[in-house]
Amino acid sequence: MAWNKEVAARDFLPIEERQQLQLRRLQHTVQRVYTSVPFYRQAMDGLQIHPSQITSLADLHRLPFTTRYDLIEHYPLGLLSVPREQLSRVHASSGTRGKAKIVGYTQHDIDIWGEVCARSLACAGLQPGDMLHNAYGYGLFTGGLGLHYGGEYLGVTIVPMSSGNTQRQVTFLKDLQPTALCCTPSYALTLAETLSALGLSIQDLNLRCGIFGAEPWTDALCQQIEDKLGLQALDIYGLSEVIGPGVAMECIQGHQSKQNGRSLHIFEDHFLPEIIDPVTGEALPYGTEGELVFTTITKEGMPLLRYRTGDLCTLSTDPCACGRTLVRMSQIKGRVDDMLIIRGINVFPAEIERILFGFSELAPYYQILVDRERTLDTLTVQAEIAANRQPPIDGQEINNGDWMNNEQVQRLQRRVSEALSAQLHLHIAVQVQPPGTLPRSEGKAVRVIDRRPT
Known about the structure:
Pathway: Aromatic compound metabolism; phenylacetate degradation. By secondary structure, this protein is an alpha/beta fold.
């Protein structure tokens, strides 16, 4: 398949025309899963809903939800809607919580995946002749191959670096002069740090934009990446269960205009979005924050009805500067299952990140440690001082025990702790570490370490 004007025009369809397409595809998908997936047939029968009763997009809310636990319960491939031998590929989620969520793809699914990733790269302003340095991991994780397909579909030159071997990555960024970079936001910081350590600067690169995703990231982290790599940092959203990267993408025009905050266009001719109350499951109106839900309406191998992503955001139909008529989602505010409950107070890691990045003395690396002392939960934030703000410690090595006794370090710890505690209404201990102390990420960053007994 190749990029052409017809594919490019799909983002700009009149809303009524797209809605007619969505309804036809939804009806076809519901009929398919009802007849071929016992799980969905039983769920729909339990709700007394038949495929013939789906006569409008409003009927979407009558369909059953699907959760990650349903995928795990039917592990490995119990939700397939095609015979197993018709699959071209199997991918799996990169999560570490118990069993992986395995997803089967037909060749049709892979073609659709390439299309939506190509449309994502077009949102970033890429076109044939650009070079894309792809530092997402290749393999069971969907990031690397998804953007690879999108680049080939669009006609750009791909540098399939995958993750790791950071010094070599920087060498290729300098020598090949790619115009775009794909990786996780945390790995973009690692690349920037290595660039500086090798005596190079953004003047040695030719990067125009970066496509970053696979983990939540704040506006403050976006600014750090843009400053350190000299590019415009754009957000891409996806999840393996739905298709992989390419479900939604921030456009370059919207990013530059900062119109209504940062948001991403959802390719809703393939993925129908909803927002629900994460507790009651009630559908919420656009503009209200809640849990993001997707129904896939073109997938063959493993279509999903009303899949609860666990991600918190809002949806909007406000016009965008780029002219696309697609529904937009805000950046992810956090995850339902990532929310920490400490002494009855809800704490999101993204809120901690936002506050930490307000301190110029700190580097953009941190970890959150959750523990329990007797019967009380505790929360400690480990941050890292910026290399150019390192305080003197009587000429001694900064990694010895004297570091934590340094007056400047103690004063900074108190300031950060007070800022966190004031915003989150919870006492939070802070440990400021020497430069280079905290782990660097080559993929998804591990931000929270929960040591509480289960």
